[in-house]
## 1
Amino acid sequence: MSVEILIVDDAPNIVLSLEFLMKKEGFSVRSASDGEEALQAVAAKKPDLVLLDVMMPKRNGYDVCEAIRADPALQGVRIIMLTAKGREVEQEKGLALGADDYVTKPFSTRDLVLKVRNLLGLQSEPNG
């Protein structure tokens, strides 16, 4: 069974780089460019993990995180929030709303991959 990751970000360059990175790790990847599209994508097919930007049009990442956590059918979906806002108050808000982890942009791709693999309960290296 392949692991599916939903990448939600309104910056196409970030989506492209995250898609490349996650596909390279062997994950199946879908993407959404705003909060509403993200919720539609999650409802259509439950992902294993969501990489969720905070600052987006229509609905922000906090709203999306809260909506996912409020739906019992989506229990088990892991959420890593991505944001340019590194202040502690934003991190606390994301974690309080149910995010599993919080990554500040710019981020180390290696660290992000390790966080994803750890949250999904996978070995830290694809062939390790």
## 2
Amino acid sequence: MSQGELWGLSGDRLVEVLATLASPHRLRVLAALAGGRAYVSQLARDLGISRALLQVHLKKLEKAGLVTAHLELSPDGKALKYYETAPFSLHLTPDVVALAATTLSTAGDGDAVPKGNS
């Protein structure tokens, strides 16, 4: 894989990933999941945020490919949705950014962010 591919990141994909990582809440979620997988209720308690707010951030992280989720049954039969970090590595250099910029689908002043990544 070449330096510019960044696990297959085009310019648009790079913007999406960086926009997703630009939230303090999402960085905290990733940091918590770096210690191991967790289910939504436990993760919300650990982070001190509501489950509804956590779900919003988890959906954005999952859409960006930074976390994965799967359902498991607890011993008492409850379905629990577990999240964990997906393997990823970003190594940004001026050359990588320059190469990614050549693949952007929209030319503009840099304010174009893919929908759903605010």
## 3
Amino acid sequence: MQILILYLVSLITSIVVAALLKMPLIQKSRPIRFSFETSILFPTPILALGIEAIFRNLFGDYITLAFFAGLFGALLSKYSDKIFGEP
């Protein structure tokens, strides 16, 4: 039950931070499956959940780490083109 709470905290945090960073809700280019454009719904929550799982396995079950995982997931999704370059 505690793991579910940690996942929800990181998920909600990533969505809220992505919305505050003014990311689009969904990708604008069609077809969506071939798009490298990031949005609030994809890949932001998936990155946050993966980072939270890594933090939980490395450091333990802490709600603050789940919050930081959501924050880091949203920031990584927003600035991935600047970090890794254009596709």
